[in-house]
Design a protein that fits this description.
With 325 residues, the protein is of the alpha+beta class. The chain folds into 3 domains: 50 residues; 151 residues, no CATH class; 95 residues, Roll (Chitinase A, domain 3). The strands form 2 sheets. A 4-stranded antiparallel β-sheet has the order 4-3-6-5. It has a 3-stranded antiparallel β-sheet with strand order 2-1-7. A hairpin with a 2-residue loop joins strand 1 and strand 2. Helix 3 crosses helix 6 and helix 3 packs across helix 10. The longest helix is centred in the first third of the chain and has 49 residues. It is extended and about 115 Å long.
């Protein structure tokens, strides 16, 4: 009898031991699953939240930029009117590259921009008088920032770049020679090839291109003819050779327009190499020199772009989130 009781007690202990093992294994299994879930969640946070804004996407000279900084700049550009950045981060990259080249290389050419310079530029752009008080300035600036959603830091950084760029353009304009080759160019466009041919023929026969365009029904008014004064090197490359080869009074062959959906005819009404440059030509030549400066400094400073598809998607998502309202 005693042996039977001992046997039953033994079996109960065995049963309890097995049940305890099962409970421990179950707890271990649940704990493992929870640990795996935690790892997945943390990994998701790292790859989806923590890492993307910290990934390198651009280096210009001695400055590097992360995806987060590029996203912030894209939002700034969007709020400043460049809505194309909502679908193409490359717009923000190109603009950021030029800004950095101007800042890093331009300052060497034209000097530092002071806080007073920035305030003067902002005041002018906001239409404030030079005599505006600090309080009036702060009020107008605050209203502008509130209306645009741009931060003061972003605005002042952008204005600094603008001041340097304006100084560079003024510097290059001052270096333009007093006189040089310049042409007064006319352009007439139509989507009708037969009219374009007739227009060219009339010009070759001595008729003014503007009058010929009106007579052909292309324009209703001779003032609708386009273009103006150019230096040969500032003409669009696509049509430069055709135009500069003309004598005064001549007309180009019929050319495809820039979008290849229509036709163009060009003529020169005046050309001189000894008269002082027209003001618009001086501006064009200064702009050409500015573009050459940017390209030269880009090569000198070095630019490295490193934007992956996943980073591009992340940046576009940040822009959409920030500009949704």
């Amino acid at each position: 009898m005693a042996a039977s009781r001992q046997s039953k007690a033994f079996h109960r202990r065995e049963q309890q031991t097995r049940e305890e093992r099962v409970r421990r294994l179950t707890l271990l299994g649940v704990g493992g699953v929870l640990a795996l879930v935690a790892i997945i969640v943390v990994a998701g946070l790292i790859w989806g939240v923590w890492l993307p804004p910290r990934q390198h996407v651009l280096t210009v000279g001695d400055r590097t930029f992360t995806a987060g900084q590029l996203a912030d700049h894209s939002v700034f550009l969007f709020r400043s009117g460049s809505t194309g950045v909502a679908s193409d981060p490359q717009i923000a990259i190109d603009e950021l590259v030029q800004r950095e080249i101007i800042l890093q290389a331009g300052t060497v050419e034209v000097g530092e921009v002071t806080d007073a310079d920035i305030r003067a530029e902002i005041s002018e752009r906001l239409g404030m008088a030079d005599t505006a008080t600090d309080e009036q300035y702060a009020t107008s600036l605050g209203d502008y920032l509130l209306a645009t959603g741009v931060s003061r830091e972003e605005l002042e950084a952008g204005v600094e770049i603008l001041v340097i760029e304006e100084r560079l353009r003024e510097k290059f304009k001052a270096e333009v020679p007093e006189a040089g080759d310049q042409l007064d160019v006319l352009r007439v466009a139509t989507n009708d090839r037969a009219r374009a041919d007739a227009l060219r023929q009339a010009a070759l026969e001595g008729e003014d291109l503007r009058d010929a365009a009106v007579a052909a029904g292309i324009y209703t008014d001779r003032t609708q003819a386009e273009m103006g004064w150019f230096a040969p090197e500032t003409l669009p490359e696509r049509v430069r050779d055709a135009i500069t080869a003309l004598a005064v009074g001549g007309a180009t062959e019929v050319l495809d327009d820039a979008n290849q959906v229509g036709f163009e005819v060009y003529a020169i009404t005046s050309r001189t190499a000894t008269e002082p440059y027209q003001e618009v030509v001086r501006d064009q030549l200064a702009g050409l020199r500015f573009d050459e400066f940017i390209e030269a400094k880009r090569a000198e400073l070095g630019v490295t772009e490193d934007l992956s598809d996943s980073e591009r998607t992340w940046i576009l998502d940040q822009v959409r989130r920030a500009t949704r309202n």
